[in-house]
Write a structure and sequence with these properties.
Elements lengths: L3 H7 L1 H16 L8 E10 L9 E3 L4 E11 L4 E8 L8 H12 L4 E4 L6 H8 L4 E4 L16 H7 L1
Parallel strand pairs: 1-5, 5-6
Antiparallel strand pairs: 1-3, 2-3, 3-4
């Protein structure tokens, strides 16, 4: 009889996901593992059942949880971190960087939005051997602006 828990505990699922990611990247004429990733967070509105897991995000004026994701440049999910919405995006960067390096190996560059600015997030990522590049909005922004590299993670949230 199939016992999924035993496969998960043995690391078989992680190995299969890693192999599938490598096959998909090689099929698109890329290296087997990504050398660049995209970071982003999104606040999800809470429900009554959320209870203490939910926090209030004053900037977005929502009560809920914040989902932080790291994707490869082809849009493959590499790491995810869920926290109450009242915690800073910047505080999640170090944990995401550790998860990515564990899952993929040597990633060199991480692209992020302006929510990840500052010396502390840059240092947290650098401690894991990754350079953080913040993609900024143009000065004269009107309406929706497609930012380089960032559209991959926005598409995943959509």
């Amino acid at each position: 009889m199939f016992n999924a828990l035993r496969w998960i505990q043995a690391g078989c699922v992680d190995i299969m996901v890693n192999d599938l990611r490598s096959i998909m990247r090689v099929a698109q004429r890329r290296r087997g593992q990504p050398s660049a990733v995209i970071l982003d967070g999104r606040t999800l509105q809470s429900t009554c059942e959320s209870g203490p897991r939910a926090g209030y995000d004053g900037y977005k004026r929502k009560r809920g949880s914040e989902v932080h994701m790291t994707l490869g440049t082809l849009g493959q999910l590499l790491a995810v971190n869920v926290r109450p919405a009242n915690e800073q995006e910047r505080a999640q960067v170090g944990e995401l960087a550790r998860q990515v390096q564990k899952a993929t190996g040597p990633v060199k560059v991480a692209f992020a939005d302006q929510g990840y600015t500052g010396e502390e997030p840059a240092q947290d990522v650098l401690d894991e051997g990754i350079e953080l590049q913040v993609i900024r909005l143009p000065e004269m922004k009107k309406g929706f602006v497609l930012l380089p590299r960032r559209w991959v993670v926005e598409r995943s949230f959509g």
